[in-house]
Amino acid sequence: MIVVESKRKKLSTLERDYPGAVIVDVTSHATGEMVRFSPFYPHGGIPVPYSGNMTSMSVEGIWQGLKVFGTAGVDRSCFRNATMKDLKRTTRRFGPTLGHRKGVDGTELLGYLEARKLIYLPSYKWVLDHKLAPQLEKLRLISKSGTLVLLDYETNGDVSDPRKPLSHASLIKAYLEGNYPECGDTKSSNSEGTVTTEAAESLSAGIEVLSEGMRVRHQKFGEGTVTAVDPAVGRVTVDFDEEGIKTLAVRLAKLEIIK
Questions:
Q1: Of the candidates 37, 65, 117, 219, which lies 20 to 30 Å from 19 by C-alpha distance?
Q2: Is the domain of 115 the same as that of 208?
Q3: Does residue 233 share a domain with residue 179?
Q4: Which domain holds residue 32?
Q5: How far apart are CA 241 and CA 221, in angstroms?
Q6: CB-based burial of residue 237 (10 Å sphere; 0-12 exposed, 13-18 middle, 19+ buried)?
Q7: Does residue 61 share a domain with residue 78?
Q8: Is the distance from CB of 97 to CB of 123 less than 8 angstroms?
Q9: What is the pLDDT of residues 73-130, one digit of tens each?
Q10: 42-69 tens-digit pLDDT
């Protein structure tokens, strides 16, 4: 079981409410590898939606960089910020928020909820898909054997609720449970990592024969055990005996099933 709780709660309260649970901080103030789940973390190479080949160091860099204010437009320097600091752009400094630019050179301004669905959600999902496979697998294993509590400063998991910022911990929970919110505009986005219907069908070819616990062989990584299968994007996560956990595109991986 996975639950999202406020990082502001006392540890003693959390331990009382969830006896025996594993409590994991996924905020920018986390210690160790789980800080990588923070939208502020500079993974690098994250496609900026509707912006051709332009990339950002962090998800927060994309969200802040595409904001348009009364006295300021798109700020590309946010995409290059790898410090996890000084990313926020505020109305106090730049005036009222007018919306988010749909791409760095776009002419369309998106409203808050529309920007959440077309910019934030696909950007964070790209990171989950491409940058966090080992960490996701650890959380998945914890949740299967007991209660996993994810700590975030925000706890709103309703994408359609504009009253509070969206909790990225809730997105991690949804991703692990296989119900990540619908996001993006696959027909008009040029960002790498956005999967069209045709591409999804192509990527999924052959994935139906794979299942968790199956032993497989890869020509580069050797033998391993399948730990997760995601038919939606045609990817499989394998814990290789010598190389560790890796997430691969089934169409490209050409995994051989060990009978």
A1: 37
A2: no
A3: no
A4: 1-193
A5: 8
A6: buried
A7: yes
A8: no
A9: 999 999 999 999 999 999 999 999 999 999 999 999 999 999 999 999 999 999 999 9
A10: 999 999 999 999 999 999 999 999 999 9
